[in-house]
Each structure stands twice: as C-alpha cells, then as structure tokens.
Amino acid sequence: MSRSKKVLVIGGGAAGLMAAIHAAWDGADAVIFEKNSQPARKLLITGKGRCNVTNNCDIDTVIRNVPTNPRFLYSALNRFAPEDTMDFFESLGVKLKTERGNRVFPASDNARDIVDALVKCAEKAGCVIYEKNIKSLIIKDGIICGVKDANGVEYLGYSVIIACGGASYPKTGSDGYGYVLARQAGHTITRIKPSLVPLVAHEGYCAKMMGLSLKNVKIDVLDTNQNKVVYTDFGELIFTHFGLSGPIILSASSHMTEPERCQYKIMIDLKPALTTEQLNTRLLRDFSEYKNRDFINSLDKLLPQKLIPVIVELSRISPHKKCNEITRAERRKFIGLLKAFPVTIRGFRPITDAIVTSGGVNVREIDAKTMESKLVSGLYFAGEVMDVDAYTGGFNLQIAFSTGVVAGESAAY
Fold it and tell me: Are residues 223 and 186 part of one domain?
C-alpha cells in the first residue's frame, strides 16, 4: 500500500465510519480496518435496537450532558453539531423523529437503517473496509507510518485514526485494544471504569420485583458519606435480579465513584406527582373504602402488584392488619416509603454490561481542534477511546460523530 494521502482508520463503528467518510470526501484514500465481519455492530444494539442517534438540542445542552472533559469537545461540536448529524442522516434517506427528552431515533425504530446508511455512504465515498485485527502501530521518528495486523502484515498510511471504542460490549469489537495501541504511541490512559451501567443493590428485595418497570418516577442519588444528593432525575427504571437498570439509573451511575463502598443510596419517589399531604388524603380515602380489608389487599389501585409485598414488609405494618386499624404514625411512615423508597448500591455491573466506558486516552495529549496526537504526528483519535463520555440521550453517539468528522478531515489534510 502506498503511503501517499492514505488514511487508515482502526475501527468500523460510529466514529470510525464517520471519520473515513469525511477523510474520503476531502480527497484521501480511506481504509477502514474492522475486526468483525460486519462494521458497526455496537450501533445495532444501541437504544435497545432503535439507535438513539443524537439529541435534538444545541451545543451548550450537549456540553451540560458531558460529565467528563466537556470543554475538550467544544471545537468538535461547533464543527459538527446535533443538527448536522440529523441533516447528514436525512440526506442519506433516513427519516428521523424526536421523542421525549429530545432523543432522536430513526422513524423506523430500527438501528439497522442507521448502520446501513453509514456503510453505504462510506462505500459510495470510496472507502475500503478490510476485516483485519490491527495489533500495532508503525511509528518512526515520532511520525506515524502505518499499522500492522495480527499476522504481521504491514499497511502504510499517511495518517492513522484510532476509533476502536472503549471496553464495553467486547463482543461487538469494543474490547479495549485501542488503549493498547495508544500506549504504544506513548499516550496516558486514565482510569477505565464502566459508565451508563446498571447498578447492583445490597438489598435482596430488588430481585423479588425483577422485571418491574416504573415509568414515571423520580430518583435522588444520596451520597451517605457527605449526606447530600449528588444527582436527581425523572423517568423510567427497572428492577432486576441484581438491582436496578433503566435510563435514569444508567445516567445516575455516571455520578458515582467506587459504589462498592455502599456509600450511595437511590431514593425512589414512587409518586412524584403527589405531595405528602395529597398522598395522605389518597390513603385516607382508600382506607375508608377498604376499611375491613387487610392492609396488603388495599393497595392494588396505588401500586404495581410486585411492589406491594416488598413495601408492606419495609413499612413493618402487619400485612393482615385491617385498614381501619392503621394508625396515623403508621400511615405517615408508609407515605415516607412511597416518597423515598430506598435501595442501597453496592457496586456496578461489569464493564462488559456498560453502554460506554469512562476513561481512556488522556485528552490533554490530544489537540482538541484536530483530534491529532500531541505526541505522534499523523496519529488521530475519535470516539469512545478518548476520556470523554456523556449521559444517556444520544449524547455519546453525537460525540462519536463530531470527533469522527474532525479526525477524518484533519487526517486527510
């Protein structure tokens, strides 16, 4: 392979494909090395198979949803903002729609449409996709010269873009090897940990409610060491055999460090639309209607069936106590549970269960305007391999697209 104006992209995911497309559009010969037989496998499973492709918002909103190194992304987002992402896919014939929280999905609710559009666009632009597992970089006198695959075959290139993801979902190809390649170039890798990941609960009662989805609840994440709320959200969560999952739980995980110390509690407001006094009025009405019923049989209109035996046990009110015998103090305590149902967090699920990886190539060693390495000339980075991550809502894919565009255009320059 000739090295003249050839851009080698390691990784055929969202960032890699976007980088290759824009490098090709700028006149380079773009070559994508993807270890899987098909590119963009991780994209196929994002958004539960629907692909939350971006967020229909302005740049400042994106930045507010990036807890890790947000300032680093200003240049990339100004070059390729969410509206540009939407225009890009719609120009490829993919109809989009905006849902709650300004989350953008393909109108078909099928991630395959996004993947197919990206791959076809890359092929039409002249990009070549090789099924190769790249194992090392070729660097001479501080300048990138190419890459070498698992069989020792060398591929020469004018520029190289590392866009092979983080360490989450390794079966999709995002297995953390990008960090190995970055270290070969002398880069520092910050601490790798799961982000946007389900949470493991200390209490066993979550397992008793496995599969129960609560769609309109409020959560407060309480740091018990500092006795302060570090995150609040409203939306959907799911009880699992290990603890908690769902959109607001995944976002909450980004605000936790070392949860294995059991210093965090999730306080779930099961009835956020009702004040304490309104709940008291509601319970008085229900108890009056069912005054001769057992307490445990009086809550069907108020709570999901799977939740009732758990919350009754936590209330320490006898399940067979008649409603007309429940005291004011017992009622107040029960209301307290409805407004702050506690779940103690004792850890994250494994990084392989995380949507994205927190940590990666230290962004202080990367030029934010070009995505080029400050250590090795001609080496670029894009996407999750860098130490940038965001909350749920399409923001992480937007980061991949924006940094991919900048890396691709800069590498082809």
Answer: no
